[in-house]
Amino acid sequence: MGDDGALIDIGDGRDLVLTTDTLVSGTHFLSTDDPFSIGYKSVAVNLSDLAAMGAIPKYVLLSLTLPVSDEIWIEQFSNGIKALLRSHSVALVGGDTTRGDTLSVTLTAIGFVKSDTALRRDHACLDDDVWVSGLIGLGSIGLLIKQGVLAFPVEEEQDFLRRLHEPQPRIELGQKLIGIANSAIDVSDGLVADAGHIANQSGVKIIIDYEEIPVHEAIKNRRFNQDIESSILGGGDDYELLFTAKAEHMLRINSIAAELGLPLTKIGRVTQGVGVEVCDGNGGLKKDFQKGFDHFATRK
Amino acid sequence: MGDDGALIDIGDGRDLVLTTDTLVSGTHFLSTDDPFSIGYKSVAVNLSDLAAMGAIPKYVLLSLTLPVSDEIWIEQFSNGIKALLRSHSVALVGGDTTRGDTLSVTLTAIGFVKSDTALRRDHACLDDDVWVSGLIGLGSIGLLIKQGVLAFPVEEEQDFLRRLHEPQPRIELGQKLIGIANSAIDVSDGLVADAGHIANQSGVKIIIDYEEIPVHEAIKNRRFNQDIESSILGGGDDYELLFTAKAEHMLRINSIAAELGLPLTKIGRVTQGVGVEVCDGNGGLKKDFQKGFDHFATRK
What strands, in cross-sheet order, belong to the sheet with B205-209? Predict the structure, then answer.
């Protein structure tokens, strides 16, 4: 249960990969959010768990709890579910609808991966490079924009809000990293927290160079604003992949980036030790980053 | 999606069977209920879906939403989960805990069945006998006892309350009915509603003889009390199996009953037509039975 999903050897050369995630109104989204986005994101976060293991997603089961039966809401929500399933050829094979006071969505995703090849959290090796896909901090800055804490020109705001509401699970990337990455995880709790999961489970230390972290053009010059720094290091909801790989794989990783049209950026390295260290550009250490998403502590 | 679970051919002579169910505080249980029972029942209703298809349960994933993090509650809840998993050699392979305003439990159960042998709802045949396992109405009469609507001597009340809180999925029975039953379902929505699912999906009519329905000794003489009649015909939460089989299988069915120490009772037959008819002992028809459990209509 340390990985994003459970691996089960079904004995025909494949492992079954199973994962489940619940999104709850008031915690992961607002009940007034666009139902399309709620559906879309529910699928995205589950497929992202499979992506982090290099699995090919095949099926999902949906369990929906609703305060009232609202057909228009359900139709838009279903459209969000179907949009992402369709683009990855995943089938909705079952489900359950229940009445309850709080809107809540649980998805279970089922995929397959060739036996003993799944990407894991506990296989990072000393001297591995640490890589991340895409841009980091988009989702949590999107949330700050939505809450009115930060503002940007409208077009740029769309980039952040789109990531918050319709994140893209990096399914193709996960599969291509099999045989290349020694460890992987998706950035859902926050960059430092998720790097910490790999470090702890692999028994190593991860050093991240703060200025190497790829961020949106709009915040490049505001990297040291406190809200933005917290979002980059501690915000979750990006659903990019963080992975480690031997230095000799750099060229292959760069060619995967080109093939997928998805930036892959080296942001640090694996060393002996414990935990995660974030270096600023002056040889100093950042220490007061928000420590990632904890449902029972940091947020309501 | 018409069956209790989804069937997926994984290509090695087995079908994967997947099912998911959510239990929500205020709808399926009270937040003040014994956490052991909440855990136990969450597993039971999911394994019951697999039982109704003749599948062997192997794995479950748990997604728990909690208003507050209460370690004692979680430990007792986990004990309930584990108790039933252990007795059926099922492994908890993954999960997710989330904070949300309403206590809610979603379980996904994964099992296997030999390809093309799973029990289905849509294969009932004309002239099949209709059978049911165990006793009917225990769960919903348990709820009436809990609500103070009905009262019995304490020892008898325990039988009803135990079924309400810790129903027994009929896993062994389901597997033994493969090759014998033409159709099967678990009694979760209510006897008539669930018979209706088989009738509708098989394109037949099911006739049930009210006085043949096996009930607890304590209510045998109160069969025509209105609350009790509604509970027998319309109450769900029994998690017995309702199945249809050719008349020639009666002896084999009786020997399965003896082997399992579980009563199996013939309560009706399959004929041409539509829907479900319930006959009283005098050649009349019962028409005003509560039509089973509908989360958005009959109950809060």
Answer: B181-186, B241-245, B129-133, B264-271, B205-209, B275-279, B285-286
